[in-house]
Amino acid sequence: MGTYKIALVPGDGIGTEVLNEGVKVLKALEKEVGGFAFTMDTYDAGAECYKKTGTAMPEATFKACKESDAIFWGSAGLPGVVYPDGTEAGVEAGLRMRFGLDLYANVRPVKLYPNVPQILAGKKAGDIDYVIIRENVEGLYASRGGGNITHDKVAVDSLVITRWETERITKFAFELARSRSGAPADGKKRVTSVDKANILRTWSFWRRVFNDVAAQNTDIEKDYAYVDAMSCWMVQKPEFYDVCVMENMLGDILTDLGAATVGGMGMSPSAEIGDNNALFQGSGGTAPTIAGKGIANPTATIVSGRMMLEWLAGRFNDANLKKAADLLEEAVVKTFEQGTALTSDIGGKASTSEMGDAVVANIKKLTAK
User: In this predicted model, what pLDDT tens digit does every residue of 169-194 receive, in sequence order?
Assistant: First the structure.
């Protein structure tokens, strides 16, 4: 039986609340599916940690995360808890993970579940089911902390695109598309490069490298979209998309747009994946205005747990983990179909813990069949 070490990092705001539900669901799967076990230890990081200790990412936490099989993250960062340059201190915790562990692929599914209040007219569950792959370690954000301000008059940051990194993230996108069922509109396995290749040389170079990789993956359809047009098409024809790959900042922006089309940030799971480590978290942020009220939507964190199970299953060739991941997705879909345990942001009245309990109840029902 495989035993897997999971580092839990609750962080700030609603982080503890939503992570508790993700852990609750994982423990239910461990019991109901069997054949694997988790050891889970909790570590401190984020804005509150910075206020207490002067660092957002203690070395002990970083070391534990690096040595774990996977990292399950709540959220980090709080408004007003900032460094002297005005940037958020808590955010540094996630960036330390990202760059320190080379988590180069930010994977953000955009999926519409049943009974979510309609955001886009005429779209129903099954019509929106694509993944945004955000290059995670270069692009415009590679210059964070390294930009220049001259005489308080001119500020400059650099957009960094390298062939090696672009090849790596594009290959990742094609491999992911190969494992999926294709776009909802036509069933075609498709990778879309989102860029601004008509304006900047950096993104023109990105597209050239994308084409080089696409030429080695001709079983997958290649596609292109300028980022401004993509912001329209994600609203007008989301069913066309399967896997979309893009530079760091473009991905940061468009993933939030994608989340808005399927119910908001509480519906937005994510994974940050490298060759040796991976971090899984909901993308809703710390939401300090609702922290402690028990109303945060735990869906993004719970589904991030499903992504963690899938990644671990592939990494360790563990069929039981894959079975658990598939069961978790089925239980989440069933919870939304029932529609009786949804949080207020998606039209329900359930608390955070009640929604987690409903997913656990459906896991038990599905395994009892």
Answer: 999 999 999 999 999 999 999 999 99
Taking the C-alpha atoms of residue 326 and residue 310, their distance in angstroms, rounded to an integer, is: 8
Beta strands in the chain (DSSP E): 2-11, 36-42, 70-75, 105-111, 129-135, 148-150, 154-156, 190-195, 221-226, 243-246, 269-273, 278-282
Report pLDDT for 139.
87
Same domain for 207 and 330? no
% of the chain with per-residue pLDDT over 70? 99
Q: Report DSSP state, residue 139.
A: B
Output DSSP code: residue 118. Answer: P
In this structure, the strands spanning 148-150 and 70-75 are unpaired
Interatomic CA distance for residues 156 and 212, integer angstroms: 31
pTM of this prediction exceeds 0.90: yes
Residue 160 and residue 257 share a domain = yes
User: Under a CB-based contact definition with an 8 Å cutoff, are residues 178 and 184 in contact?
Assistant: no
Distance, CA of 73 to chain centre? 11
Q: Which domain holds residue 251?
A: 118-262
Check residue 154 and give its pLDDT: 87
